[in-house]
């Protein structure tokens, strides 16, 4: 099925309308390496010139760098022509010693120390800091970022209590006053759709890993709950954090680490079927999740302009019905998973 960037899908029961394809800006914060400022702007320009009008960022990406770069570009575009989303759950403070500060996985990011805070005050502080970094006066929606136990340790229960009691009140106030149009949650684990998402009322979610061409384990659980509850889904990692873009090469990444042999072997199987039907792996990965009734958009990232322009081509590549049928026949995707129409 051809996907048009001018199409719009409603996020939950809100007034927020999303195109089927957006741009995730994590790479602009230096996810694996830091692109130069010139390359970052050229990448955003390539997305804009290609018709992309949905941009997702977060304070965490590059410890503020992604928001700076995204906002610096978008502030020169007509505000009524694009959708911008970012996230809450973290705000920043100056590290005690910037010279020795460890930026962790964001080696190319900024020297900003994370403060986790899902409370009312934490949400508002994060929101205000994001506005300043972006240089914009409006954000269309906010996602509760990384509410899963990983990264929280012994503080997880207390932080989730903050989110479910006072933090959600801040988000609901922002929505009621018209400052944002929708409330979301960004997650990485399949069980979070069932165990954490129900803690607060949501309009939509970003699902990074639990529903891809490689894994439909959440099809009958968390993704079905989203259908039942009218919660829309944005697929945040359609390439499964790398391997569905690069193929099963040496050093291929999966779930933000290096892919194990079983994942590579499954990818080889999908790739073999794709070869028989003249389908590119990347096109299949991008288009597959859009067939799910809860999914409104996919937002792959990009670290350079040619990655964005390639993704736009993959979005409209023709894929025959026989390709999906063979994947199911070989057990490479779940038998009753929704697939795009030919």
Describe this structure as you would to a colleague:
This protein is α/β, with parallel strands linked by helices. 35% of the residues lie in helices and 15% in strands. The strands form four sheets. The protein has an eight-stranded parallel beta sheet. Strands 1-2 form a two-stranded antiparallel ribbon. Strands 6-7 form a two-stranded antiparallel ribbon. Strand 12 and strand 13 form a beta hairpin. The chain starts with 8 loop residues before the first strand and ends in a 13-residue tail after the last helix.
Cα(first) to Cα(last) distance is: 5 Å
CATH architecture: Alpha-Beta Barrel
- The CATH class is Alpha Beta
* Order of neighbouring strands in the sheet with most strands: 3-4-5-8-9-10-11-14
Secondary structure tally, helices: 11
**Series of secondary-structure elements, N-terminal to C-terminal:** EEEHEHEEEHEHEHEHEHEEHHEHH
Structural class: alpha/beta
Mean pLDDT figure: 96
Residue fraction in strands: 5-15%
Question: Notable features of this structure?
Answer:
342 residues; TIM Barrel; 35% helix; two-stranded antiparallel ribbon; eight-stranded parallel sheet
Summed up:
The protein is α/β, with parallel strands linked by helices and 342 residues long. Helices cover 35% and strands 15% of the residues.
């Amino acid at each position: 099925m051809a996907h048009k960037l001018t199409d719009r899908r409603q996020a939950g029961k809100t007034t927020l309308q999303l195109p089927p394809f957006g741009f995730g800006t994590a790479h602009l914060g230096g996810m694996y390496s830091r692109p130069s400022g010139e390359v970052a702007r050229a990448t955003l320009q390539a997305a804009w010139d290609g018709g992309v009008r949905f941009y997702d960022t977060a304070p965490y990406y590059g410890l503020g760098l992604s928001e700076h770069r995204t906002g610096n570009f978008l502030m020169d575009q007509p505000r009524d022509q694009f959708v911008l989303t970012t996230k809450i759950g973290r705000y920043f403070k100056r590290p005690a010693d910037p010279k020795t500060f460890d930026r962790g996985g964001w080696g190319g990011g900024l020297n900003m120390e994370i403060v986790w805070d899902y409370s009312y005050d934490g949400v508002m502080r994060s929101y205000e800091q994001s506005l300043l970094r972006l240089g914009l006066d409006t954000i269309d929606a906010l996602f509760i970022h990384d509410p899963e136990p990983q990264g929280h340790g012994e503080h997880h229960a207390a932080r989730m209590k903050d989110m479910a009691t006072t933090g959600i009140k801040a988000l609901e106030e922002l929505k009621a006053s018209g400052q944002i149009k929708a409330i979301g949650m960004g997650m990485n684990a399949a069980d979070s759709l069932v165990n954490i998402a129900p803690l607060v009322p949501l309009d939509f979610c970003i699902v990074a890993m639990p529903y891809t061409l490689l894994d439909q384990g959440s099809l009958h659980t968390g993704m079905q709950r989203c259908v039942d509850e009218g919660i829309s889904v944005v697929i945040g990692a359609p390439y499964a954090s790398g391997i569905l873009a690069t193929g099963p090469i040496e050093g291929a990444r999966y779930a933000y680490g290096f892919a194990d042999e079983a994942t590579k072997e499954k990818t080889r199987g999908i790739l073999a079927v794709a070869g028989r039907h003249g389908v590119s792996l990347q096109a299949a990965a991008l288009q597959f999740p859009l067939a799910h009734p809860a999914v409104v958009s996919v937002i792959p990232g990009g670290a350079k302009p040619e990655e964005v322009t390639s993704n736009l081509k993959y979005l409209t590549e023709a894929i025959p019905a026989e390709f999906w049928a063979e994947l199911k026949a070989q057990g490479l995707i779940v038998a009753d998973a929704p697939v795009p129409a030919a």
